Hints:
Elements: H1 17-43, H2 70-83, H3 113-118, H4 128-134, E1 140-145, E2 148-153, H5 161-175, E3 183-187, E4 208-209, E5 219-220, H6 237-249, E6 257-264, H7 271-277, E7 287-291, H8 294-299, E8 313-318, H9 327-333, E9 337-341, E10 360-362, H10 367-380, H11 382-398, H12 401-418, E11 430-432, H13 434-440, H14 443-450
Bound molecules: 2-acetamido-2-deoxy-beta-D-glucopyranose (2 copies).
Amino acid sequence: MGLFSNPKHSPRSPSYLFPSVVAxxxxxxxxxxxxxxxxxxSRTGTVVGHNLEPxxxxxxxxxTFDDEPPQRRAVKIIxxxxxxxxxxxxxxxxxxxxxxxxxxxxxxxxxxxxxxDLEPWVSTRISKKHVEEAxxxxxxxxxxxxxKMYVDYYYACVQSxxxxxxxxxxxxxxxxxxLVPDVDLMFDCMDKPTINRTEHQSMPLPLFRYCxxxxxxxxxxxxxxxxxxxxxxIRTWQEEFLDIKKGSRAVSWKNKIPLAYWKGNPDVxxxxxxxxxxxxxxxxxxxxxxxxxxxxxARSGFKQSKLSDQCNxxxxxxxxxxxxxxxxKYILACGSVTLIISPQYEDFFSRGLITQxxxxxxxxxxxxxxxxxxxxxxxxxxxxxxxxxxxxQKFMENxxxxxxxxxxxxxxxxxxxxxxFKPTPPSNALEVCIDSVLCYADDKQRLFLSKSxxxxxxxxxxxxKPS
Length: 467
Ligand SMILES: *[C@@H]1O[C@H](CO)[C@@H](O)[C@H](O)[C@H]1NC(C)=O
Ligand SMILES: *[C@@H]1O[C@H](CO)[C@@H](O)[C@H](O)[C@H]1NC(C)=O
């Protein structure tokens, strides 16, 4: 209000009227602008869940941002969502022809599942209507146009799933600059598939999530934990795998405990996990079933539950939880015989597992006896049992991050080929870039995210065999 200062030395005159009118106008404009900004801020959904409700189909405690004063929150949202990508200088361009000298090689067999997952749309193709209808089941929408990514948020995701999943898309764009085609897709980040094949028979809806079943149209996509899960101190897949493999070698096969081991949370509305508690008898059923107390584990910094220290048994049980479980990859990585209780859910890579080759299938209807007979067989056929364990571990070793990006690349490319419209950035979607995700990340998340920052690939993606 400098205009009104020093009135003593300058007597009031009409010439002062004009500046005061200007000042008043500026003031009202500022108030209007602040009001507008406030309005925009309170309507902006973010990768950490500002202004978003939890998914109604799987309610979880809503995130509050009470620790942030409202002004700080507003500045952060303006800065991270509206300004960061605009001024980001990320510009890596590599022509795809740079790959041409590189030998191409075929993708692993389980990539064939991409075609099966997308089969429902081969004859109808995917229209704008398909995508819009799928929105009812989605937490967010990802649109990629010209190598830039836009995200429209509908609901918050539990913990940091949205952040790490969106990060995975951004890393894919970084890894294959100029190669990822334009795409428009809906994503749900909660566990259970929702697009029932019977109910949606007349119009299958394309919805990406972390798993599917034979009875659902949902399209499986690599889950967030490959890039890290800071809430429970799980690091990137490559770091975890190497550590688990090292841990698994600490004890030779002969010296591993000749029992089947499971450690987890039985209280996740999973009948099979409850049933498993009945098998906790090492002499009768050859099994050791332990309860994972997440509260206690969190308090002790997850030292007791370090994944690499959990490979001391010859047999490890995998039991689905509320839906599929991220634990499958860590269990297989141990090199023990993985006893998989006949699964209902599949994720993108589990379609590559072959029973009695790289894991052992357990009958859920005869749960304890079935575990017992696997353990007895393995202890009598040590060489074969060890070989099954090793092949399971090898399968996971081959599932390097490179292959995971290849899978994402081919899934998105094949999906994109089915679109019967040209994707355009949705009017209310904001551009998201690596810096804007980092802008929202807290210190711990930033540490985890930075471990999975990729460089542009020197080799092209593997070749997806023609169908
Ligand atoms: C799919 O829907 C049908 C018909 O409503 C129902 O009978 C079936 O149980 C559902 N399947 C799943 C896996 O929910
Ligand atoms: C299973 O049995 C062991 C040994 O008797 C015990 O320490 C453990 O707490 C039991 N697990 C559960 C889930 O009750």
